[in-house]
Design brief:
It is a single chain. This protein has 14 helices and 20 strands. With 436 residues, it is α+β, with helices and mostly antiparallel strands. A hairpin with a 3-residue loop joins strand 2 (21-29) and strand 3. Helix 4 (118-137) runs antiparallel to helix 6 (200-217). The longest helix is centred in the first third of the chain and has 20 residues, at 118-137. It is elongated and about 80 Å long. The relative contact order is 0.10.
Length: 436
């Protein structure tokens, strides 16, 4: 990495972010985000702050990527994955406050050092596979593994970062495959180039194989100034190992860089390979929280009725809205001291009494339509606590007067114990939410 540049923080007006973090030097930047070193004023802890421009990600249609990255990073707890401490926001910026990896990018180390010893490469690769295997166990696929997205802490331990292109198992189509074309050309698997469906775990393993080769060789196995020529090399899977590669490593790489995903080595098989297991110490850590789609007491975690901290912020912040997000919602949100079932029951009864058409929507949702079809109102209920819910009401069609007449005057009064409106909860500057 080039010498760190001293620049003003993303907030421009001050070197302090929300009176909590002192913004320092620029660590790196991309098309939509900049990363700064910062210090927690209260405890002196060093952190990295990723500043995302809302307008740019909205304009390029990447708002979903930002939401997914927050949702995923908030649930990952592994010593070899960069930890997300909290998210802050203003009307124009989103701030990821993350663990600071003092050693910087692995890419910079390779660029300056040339190549690593086989033993050191093995140690870093073992940490990488431990993190990737953990992600896969939670149904998370990184899809952009490369040395630029791998950081080192002050002890030289590897940390996986940047989940902006990651996918979750809910994105898998009926054919059992992912289909979004993404990744960095030199690290992308041949099945992605073939533009057919692919297994997220298999493409991550391929990228890990490329990374391992780069660590020990100091250069890419498939490379060419002409992108199409490089793609042909990747698709054919032809590469040459330098003379200093051990026989076991050559054999291992041939399994990692197998162009046929169905026969490519799996994470489980990697962990049993003789080359990999040499000096391997299984990572011990305490898993916090629930993984994506994991089961709690035999039941799958609710995706529609329970809100985590990152959902809650969307209801109570004028700065960061992660549900409707980067667009305005016609309607309202408010909190009730009531069960989800009771709220839906009351809304349905009131709507039917007014002669409105009622349709069930999801588990705790209902769609209400006027007889002439001119106005449709969607009501969804999200559980915060056992007897505390957020009610989200959206208007589809019709004008504001019709919405006020039907919803506010006829239906909403039946939910008379509303305790807190969205407006009352909204803060004037920004909202912080802990991911821990």
């Amino acid at each position: 990495m080039s010498e760190i540049e001293q620049v003003p923080p993303a907030t421009a007006e001050t070197t302090t972010l929300f009176e909590k973090y002192e913004i320092g030097k620029l660590l790196g930047c991309g098309a939509f985000a900049k990363v700064y070193h910062a210090r927690n004023i209260e405890n002196g802890q060093s952190v990295a702050v990723k500043v995302i421009n809302k307008k740019k990600v909205t304009a390029t249609g990447l708002a979903g990527n930002v939401k997914r990255e927050i949702s995923i990073m908030s649930r990952l707890r592994h010593p070899n994955i960069v930890k997300l401490h909290e998210v802050l926001a203003t009307k124009t910026k989103i701030y990821f406050v993350m663990e600071f990896a003092k050693g910087g990018e692995l890419f910079a180390k390779i660029a300056s050092k040339g190549r690593f010893s086989e033993d050191l490469s093995r140690k870093l690769f073992q940490q990488l596979i431990s993190a990737v295997g953990y992600c896969h166990s939670l149904g998370v696929f990184h899809r952009d593994l490369k040395p630029e997205n791998l950081l080192l802490d002050d002890k030289g331990n590897l940390k996986v970062s940047d989940f902006g292109l990651s996918a979750v198992k809910e994105q898998i189509r009926v054919d059992g495959m992912l289909h979004t074309l993404c990744g960095t050309p030199a690290y992308v698997a041949p099945e992605i180039l073939a533009k057919r469906g692919y297994d997220g775990a298999k493409v991550d393993v391929w990228s890990c194989g490329i990374i391992l080769f780069v660590l020990v060789a100091g250069y890419l196995p498939f490379n060419d100034p002409n992108l199409m020529v490089m793609y042909r090399k990747i698709y054919s899977g032809e590469f040459k190992c330098p003379r200093w590669f051990s026989p076991d490593l050559r054999r291992f790489l041939s399994r990692l860089l197998d162009t046929k995903p169905e026969t490519r080595i799996t994470v489980e098989e990697i962990m049993q390979d003789p080359w990999f297991r040499k000096g391997y110490k299984e990572v011990k850590f305490h898993e916090e929280g629930v993984g994506l789609g994991e089961k709690v007491n035999g039941e799958e975690e609710s995706k529609t009725t329970d809100l985590n901290a990152f959902d809650i912020i969307s209801f109570f912040s004028s700065g960061l809205d992660l549900s409707g997000l980067f667009t305005d919602v016609e309607g309202e949100r408010f909190v009730l001291r009531e069960s989800s079932e009771k709220v839906v029951e009351k809304v349905e009864a009131a709507a039917k009494a007014e002669g409105l058409v009622v349709r069930k929507k999801k588990e705790f949702g209902v769609e209400i339509e006027t007889q002439n079809g001119g106005l449709v109102i969607g009501v969804e209920v999200y559980r915060l606590l056992a007897e505390v819910v957020v009610v989200e009401v959206k208007r589809f069609g019709g004008d504001e007067l019709a919405f006020d007449e039907v919803w506010k005057n006829k239906l909403r009064p039946h939910l008379c114990d509303a305790t807190t409106s969205q407006q009352d909860q909204t803060q004037s500057h920004a909202t912080a939410v802990c991911a821990e």
